[in-house]
Design a protein that fits this description.
The structure holds 2 protein chains of 2 kinds. By secondary structure, chain A is an alpha/beta fold. Helices cover 45% and strands 17% of the residues of chain A. Chain A is built from 14 helices and 11 strands. In chain A, strands 1, 2, 3, 4, 5, 6, 7, 8, 9, 10 and 11 form an 11-stranded mixed β-sheet that branches. In chain A, helix 2 links the parallel strand 1 and strand 2. Chain B is mainly α. Chain B contains 24 helices and 2 strands. A two-stranded antiparallel ribbon of chain B has the order 1-2. The two termini of chain B are 45 Å apart. Classes of the chains: A alpha/beta, B mainly alpha. At the A-B interface, helix 1, strand 2, helix 3, helix 8 and helix 9 of A face helix 1, helix 11, helix 15, helix 18 and helix 24 of B.
Chain lengths: 359, 554
């Protein structure tokens, strides 16, 4: 009888065990296999199938992509798992969080083939080459064209405009501690008004009725009156912190496609974001990872990015699709900030910003 | 003489069997819950091989943290009070009144409980936010107030009260109250002195469960609370995932752990008190057609509440998902042109279903073993303690579990990090408590003498279980499985960290689609949410047909 009882228990255990076994045999195809290269990224990662297929054919590696939450979350998770990383290459750490990744030893050095074509303005870490710039985008205030036409009001053009009385209660932005466009906008104001001036600017912005919500989705798809989602939700804020590439996205994803973008970009409110990729410190397939990094800066991939991830290429000569030229040109003179300066001040700025604006 | 010896032997064997049965769930929770959670807490509080427990005091001394603690507690208290206020009349109506469509409606009110929070948050924004229904009708907007959070909490937890309290209420013998009235008591007095004392432990247990769920509320507060309102759970998520302050997150995890442990201990105590003998009758015989204006008004009021509070938010979702002509958003789900996924979004439906099936299998095996082991009333303190421990996953931060899985289960022999089984395992953690809570009361209701008789006649424990217990609990088992299935389908907090990106689950896919710009993505998110809601609703409607009267608390 003892034996039967043990059998019952063993059946129970065995079930879990078998499931686990199925699992690990299934999982092993990705982990240690030198034929597969794993890219860890954030949810916004996207690439055309044929472009990935071309890389697989040419390099002999199969690409596995792990999309790991939003950008900040993906970076933090990669750092947490760096001793036994989930993949070989991480893509999607931007200039606002770069120091966190480098300080925590997330990447190992590798200079990608073809990286000499990357525009000089985007290069960082030139001594060690732990990261490679892949794309760039501008975080800018977007406006609802219809609102401003209906109200016979000029849309704002600059940071200074946003605190003017005619734009009272019109702007919605994101929580700088939670959202990458929110943080980018904060850094934009810090770059524009300096260490001593940004807090005063935010006091005026707050007095002028800026609304802060947690994430980009809510700001853009719920609060903003110009986006498709926002229109549905009857958003009533005609100004939102989003991307310079959001207007083309409104056209590309609309069905049927409108003749012109329903939204525009306030040119003088932009902060330039650069996204990097790097070879993970304990990558199991470092060779494949290197090939993948070479591919990410290749012309084929660089030209494929814009309509997939709504970002701009970083290499000289890469073509930008006509939708981008037509509906969302890159900002001419965006604010920028040295990653080292961001590293030194980011946490303190966010903390001060939180008590200033949210409390 | 002979018989006594047999009895002693049986008892001893029973104790050993119980321990054997408990070993599996204990091992499961040790490896897949305690170990990962401990690993992530250690990561935050341990540096250079030494524990830094001084951090606990430092963190708790911060005014921001104390503010979070205060908000977490008071909103949970208010949410619980509000839920009781709104749902107790519902519990009465479902228990004592008979009306057409009652069974369907009872299943319908349970659907919110298993909906993913990301969907509910979005639906509530559409209802009480700007341009929402309330705004259009009366110009009322609640989206920046704590009211939106409280209402969503009532939406989620209405079913907990209706099922826990209503389930018992239906089985209370109405003749006892009638007898009191015959003896001259007023209706109120009869209710207060007869029914209320019998119901009180169930009300307390329901209130504690609602408190637990709202105390650890994550998605709702994150979406509706905006950046200003934050519960402990949301703060743990922010500190880990956004600010990357692991030591603060670890301290907050410990604080939540202690708080949840206290609530669960209280819950276990009320559950035990509830098991004191009540004269229970068949629920089918206690419900009557509403009589008089009072009961009619009550029924009307409850139905109106259900429509406004529970049906309207999902209806807004459905309406939005149909906004494109010719089911456009649904048709778009079958194509992968959007670039959000490597696969067409519709595949998330298949993924979710297969993950949920695996999670259900695990939860049912683990949960039933635990429930069988916990069945005996004379179970020792250790066993009773384990009963409460099994509930802990419901109250411990899903973020902590998700991250814990990633950093703890990454070495052989437990290198499951890239394995698909990780998702069902995490989902099963949340499913097990439901299985145990559903099975336990039914198992305890099986007359122990039947088992003893079978044993004395020479049946093995396995055969006793198969021939005595199983026929009686088969339905409960199905219902437990159904709940585990529905809860697994909707699980978001932990899944979002560990789901393989090429195999997104429905809630993860919804969240991703919501995170992308454009009309089509937004519409697809609404369409997928609707599909998820329908799958949950169908599962629950099937369960409702299986429901018996003594099937647990949920």
């Amino acid at each position: 009888m003892n034996i039967r009882r043990l059998t019952a228990v063993a059946v129970g255990l065995g079930m879990v065990g078998t499931l686990a076994a199925c699992g690990s045999s299934d999982g092993s195809q990705g982990a240690g296999d030198s034929k597969t290269v794993t890219l860890v990224s954030h949810d916004s990662w996207a690439a055309s199938k044929d472009v990935i297929a071309a890389f697989e054919k040419q390099s002999g590696y199969k690409v596995r992509v792990l999309k790991d939450g939003d950008a900040g979350q993906a970076v933090n998770k990669a750092i947490l798992t760096k001793d036994n990383p989930q993949g070989d290459v991480f893509f999607g750490v931007d200039n606002t969080l770069l120091s966190r990744a480098l300080d925590n030893g997330l990447f190992q050095p590798y200079e990608a083939k073809g990286s000499e074509r990357i525009k000089a303005a985007y290069r960082v870490d030139q001594e060690q080459h732990r990261v490679t710039p892949i794309d760039t985008g501008d975080i800018c205030v977007n406006y609802d064209k219809k609102y401003f036409a209906d109200h016979k009001l000029e849309p704002p053009r600059s940071f200074d405009d946003l605190v003017k009385p005619q734009y009272k209660n019109l702007l919605v932005t994101e929580n700088a501690s939670a959202s990458s466009p929110g943080l980018g906008f904060l850094l934009g104001t810090a770059a524009k008004y300096g260490d001593d001036g940004w807090a005063g600017y935010w006091k005026r912005l707050k007095a002028n009725g800026v609304k802060v919500v947690d994430g980009w989705e809510q700001a853009y798809n719920e609060e903003f009156s110009g986006s498709a989602g926002g229109k549905k939700a009857k958003g009533d804020r005609p100004l939102v912190v989003s991307y310079a590439s959001s207007p083309p996205a409104e056209v590309v994803f609309a069905d049927p496609k409108p003749a012109t973008a329903p939204t525009g970009v306030a040119e003088g409110t932009c902060f330039r974001q650069v996204e990097y990729a790097g070879l993970l410190s304990n990558a199991k397939n470092a060779k494949g990872g290197k090939a993948l990094l070479d591919f990410l800066v290749s012309e084929r991939f660089q030209q494929d990015m814009p309509l997939n991830m709504f970002v701009y290429p970083v290499t000289e000569g890469a073509q930008v699709p006509p939708e981008f030229v037509k509906y969302g040109p890159q900002a001419k003179d965006p604010e920028t900030m040295d990653p080292a300066k961001i590293a030194d001040h980011r946490d303190q700025w966010v903390k001060s910003w939180t008590s200033l604006v949210l409390k | 003489m002979d018989l006594t010896r047999t009895e002693v032997a049986l008892r001893r064997r029973g104790a050993a069997a119980r321990f054997g049965l408990l070993a599996v769930p204990v091992a499961f929770f040790g490896v897949f819950f305690a170990y990962p959670v401990a690993a992530i807490v250690a990561r935050g509080l341990k540096a250079d091989g030494a524990w830094h427990l001084g951090r606990i005091g430092e963190v708790l001394a911060q005014s921001d943290v104390r503010h979070v603690l205060w908000f977490t507690t008071w909103q949970a208290l208010v949410s619980t009070a509000l839920t009781l206020l709104v749902a107790l009349p519902g519990a009465y109506v479902f228990a004592r009144l008979d009306f057409p469509g009652k069974h369907v409606l009872r299943a319908v009110v349970t659907v919110p409980f298993v909906l993913p929070t990301v969907v509910v948050g979005t639906a509530f924004l559409a209802l009480v936010g700007r341009g929402g229904l309330l705004d259009e009708l009366w110009g009322v907007r609640l989206d920046t107030t704590v009211w939106a959070i409280l209402l969503a909490h009532v939406f989620f937890n209405y079913a907990v009260v209706v099922r826990t309290v209503g389930g018992l209420w239906a089985q209370l013998d109405p003749r006892q109250e009638e007898a009191a009235r015959m003896l001259g008591a007023s209706p109120l007095k009869a209710w207060r002195q007869v029914t209320l004392p019998a119901l009180a432990p169930a009300v307390a247990a329901a209130a504690l469960m609602v408190f637990l769920f709202t105390f650890t509320s994550f998605g709702v507060v994150q979406i509706l609370g905006g950046p200003t309102f934050s519960t402990l759970e949301v703060e743990i998520y922010r500190q880990t995932s956004e600010i990357f302050d692991l030591s603060t997150a670890a301290v907050l995890t410990l604080v939540q752990f202690v708080a949840v442990g206290a609530v669960l201990a209280l819950h276990a105590w009320t559950v035990r008190r509830r098991e004191t003998a009540l004269r229970l009758v068949d629920a089918a015989g206690t419900a009557r057609r509403p009589r008089g204006a009072g009961q009619g008004a009550l029924l009307g009021g409850v139905l109106a509440t259900v429509v406004v509070l529970l049906l309207l938010p999902p209806a807004v979702l459905v309406q939005r998902s149909l906004a494109a002509p010719g089911f456009g958003y649904y048709r778009a789900l079958t194509s992968d042109d959007g670039g959000v996924f490597l696969v067409p979004p519709i595949e998330a439906v298949g993924n979710s279903l297969s993950y949920a099936v695996a999670a259900t299998a695990i939860a049912v095996v683990i949960g039933s073993l635990a429930a069988v082991a916990l069945t005996r009333r004379d179970a020792g303190r250790f066993v009773r303690g384990f009963d409460a421990l099994l509930m802990l996953p419901l109250g411990v931060s899903a973020v902590t579990v998700g991250f814990g899985f990633l950093i703890a289960l990454d070495e052989p022999p437990l290198d499951l990090r890239s394995s698909w089984i990780l998702v069902p395992l995490a989902q099963a953690l949340v499913g097990v408590p439901f299985v145990v809570r559903t099975m336990l009361p039914v198992l305890r209701a099986v007359d122990a003498r039947l088992r003893e008789a079978a044993s004395v006649l020479g049946a093995s424990p396995w055969r006793v279980w198969r021939e005595v217990d199983l026929p009686m609990v088969r339905r409960a088992l199905l219902i437990a499985a159904g709940f585990a299935f529905a809860v697994s389908l909707g699980e978001f907090g932990a899944t979002v960290f560990i789901a393989r990106p090429d195999n997104p689950t429905l809630p993860v896919a919804v969240a991703r689609l919501l995170g992308r710009p454009g009309d089509l993505n937004y519409g697809q998110a609404m369409a997928l949410s609707t599909i998820l809601m329908v799958v949950c609703a169908v599962a629950l409607l099937v369960l409702e047909r299986l429901r018996t009267d003594r099937t647990g608390e949920f």
